[in-house]
Design a protein that fits this description.
7-stranded mixed beta sheet, about 20% strand, Arc Repressor Mutant, subunit A, 9 strands, alpha/beta, DNA-binding, homodimer, two-stranded antiparallel sheet, Rossmann fold, 2 domains, 9 helices, about 210 residues
Chain lengths: ~210, ~210
DNA sequence: AAGTGTGAAGTCTTTCACAGCT
DNA sequence: AGCTGTGAAAGACTTCACACTT
């Protein structure tokens, strides 16, 4: 399969489309047009078609898309046709919240381990099969549980250190919630979810708007 | 002040630059070049200069930027030279975690209220001056506390309802953590932080990578 | 000599508009 | 008649490269 460079924005929209389709499936809708999807998720219909066109022809001209079929295609494209094992490092409020976040489990992301350095947190039971463990078991757990995704929820000053350990242990992708720019090898996929940046964007647009 | 359309990416990078500058200030650095900032945050030096150029000329040719001065400029640009009052609706694990997230307070975002419908959660004390309140006080609290930013951390099925209430009450901007596409009037600023979308992006790139 | 500020070029992304199926 | 799939056009963003200032 020759894959052209896919815009990141396209992949993110696919994820959104797929969730909209879940909803349509729940409502028993069988067919849907690009225009209807577009309306449902707030983009243009041409955008929807272009996004899908990167991966093939999933619709029928004059008719639209079969909801169930399109959903399956997108889930496969996103690599969500089977589970991913996840490790979270940092069992603070945020890490703990993410560890039991239902939205992840629903989409096939299984949090297999939650680590921290704080002795007070170690041993805390968050769910039937999830107990906070010391960070010393990181490498062992990554290997035993076949972890491919690491989530970093430690404070900024230890984020790079934790990242290095995760990379060293062989994790292939990282989701960084710390407010630091992390350095990883080319081969490791990194995404930042900077919560403050998002609020600051609102701040900017609020300021700009009121200054008018 | 005639403001051209500023790319969203530029605003997000400014936020990142400002945090990098905080670090430099801590280290006692007085001057910094666009190249050094670029290296520190992982973008090109031309990008840094271009981003700043949208807002004025802050540097000295041949020398660079005064760290403290540039920091102040960026903070003002971002509207962070004074506080923003924030309300969080949804006191689940995520909402509660965000409510006491230090990263927000550090940057001038004050969480003045945390609401929920669940009687079991109402009354829970999260901090000295933060107790979970019933959602019925939403409008009153928005007005009394002069709330301009709402954070939505309720499950998807009530997200639109909560959003409507926040908009009705007069909130100017929303940060949506629910996995739903929200409808808001043109005048209200909306940003989505879809946690699953970010993981699914990793899933996609992992799948694509391993399929090679 | 060093490093900013910026038009111009290049690249990437979205929208347009219509041929081609059903 | 309706809606997809897609080249071509438009638009947005990034990088280049260099004149200009200290």
């Amino acid at each position: 399969m020759k894959v052209f460079k896919i815009p990141e924005a396209t992949v993110m929209r696919l994820s959104v489309y797929s969730r909209h389709l879940t909803q349509l499936i729940g409502e028993g809708v069988v067919n849907v047009s690009s225009g209807e999807i577009a309306k449902g998720v707030g983009v243009s219909s041409a955008q929807v078609r272009k996004d899908l066109a990167y991966f093939g022809e999933f619709g029928t001209r004059g008719v639209g898309y079969n909801v169930q079929e399109l959903y399956s295609h997108i889930m496969r494209i996103l690599g969500l046709n089977n589970c991913w094992n996840v490790m979270i490092v940092g069992a603070g409020k945020l890490g703990s919240a993410l560890a039991i976040y239902k939205g992840f489990a629903d989409r096939g992301f299984k949090v297999r381990a939650l680590l921290d350095t704080d002795p007070d947190k170690i041993g805390t039971k968050l769910a039937e099969d999830l107990v906070v463990e010391p960070i010393t078991v990181l490498e062992e757990r990554v290997k035993d549980e076949n972890i491919s995704i690491g989530i970093v929820t430690v404070p900024g000053d230890t984020a790079q250190e934790v990242t290095d350990k995760l990379v060293e242990a062989g994790v292939g992708a990282l989701l960084n919630f710390s407010p630091r720019v992390l350095r990883v090898p080319e081969s490791v996929i990194l995404r930042n979810v900077d919560l403050s940046v998002n609020l600051e964007l609102l701040s900017f647009y609020l300021s700009y708007g009121t200054a008018r």
